[in-house]
Amino acid sequence: SRPTVVVEGGGSRSRPYVAHIDREDCWDALVSQHLEHLTAVVRTADMKEKLSEINHASDNVIAAFFEAVTTQLRKQWPPVMAAQVDRLAHQLDMSFLGVTMMQMIFEMMTYSTSFVYKAPDGVVVHGRSTEWPSSLLKQISVPIHIYVGGNLRAKAVHWVGCVGFFSVLTPGYSVSINYRSQRRTTVASAVSSICQRMPGFRNFEKVLRGSLQDFHLVGIAKLLEGHVVSTLMVRDLVLRESTYQGACRAVQSAKLCSEVFVLVAGPTNAARYPKTTEAPFTQGVETLDHVPYLVQPAMGSIKYIIYSMNLFWWNGEDGGPDESNDMS
User: Fold this and answer.
1) String of DSSP letters for 177-196
2) C-alpha 7, offset from chain centre
3) Counting beta carbons within 10 angstroms of the beta carbon of residue 177, is it exposed (0 to 12), middle (13 to 18) or buried (19 or more)?
4) What is the DSSP string of 109-120?
5) Contact 234, 167 (CB under 8 A)
6) The pLDDT value given to residue 3
7) What is the model's pTM?
8) HEC sequence for 234-251
9) Residues 204-243: pLDDT tens digits?
């Protein structure tokens, strides 16, 4: 079968970094090398506004609430991933929950456009632009090779500070996610859901509503309900799925804590999932069976996509990675 080609916007021109995602120290060196830039991103007005309440809670009730949420999340997350978040929090002087919510904030900052296209010769091209909201984000966007059990499993352009992935390329498929606005969960229902799962806080609904942003409340509610951050879904695909069909099944059944578009591309076809926070979700799924290309969401221009991309591909029978090639 023909290889899938992935085109990815932004990113460093340096040689790819190595990330062993099944090891606790997976991100230590990468974060350390980019600590100055990553700290600058965390301190931007946008990020500070979203994270300050969580990282610097002074009210005893809110501080206790954060501690309880953290305890619940630790029970849901695989130990290795929880340990990676702990180490990242230590390096950035942040709380566990703060780093967790930062994953969602990064997701909301991916102002980009993804597309898939089947070329006349049958090769499926999977592309992505990056309409960066901040020049700082360019400094923490790096190419990485992802290893599991000592074996190369995938490659990606990665945002330092994330423990999951926005897009990956494996020998069997590629995936990209793009954020879409929350529409289904109201703040009132989010607070109700939080209090149901943490009865001790039922009497503090007004405190929660008055002290936390809507974004926090909706995101925390979904996390407590067992939904996952979309980038962590992509991480799980790398760990568990090796085929296009398996990746599509996993995406379709995933419960996500934010609404995103998901593109999954294989050697001969691709599927676009307008994922809500509910699962399973089958409405509106599109494939390349009847159209030559798929785009999500239509936020960037094709001219911008063409002039702002790096090309990555798998080649050879062993599925080994080739070097990145700057196309700008």
Assistant:
1) EEE----S--HHHHHHHHHH
2) 17
3) buried
4) T----EEEEE-T
5) yes
6) 36
7) 0.80
8) HHHHHHHCCCHHHHHHHH
9) 888 888 888 887 888 888 888 888 888 899 999 999 999 9
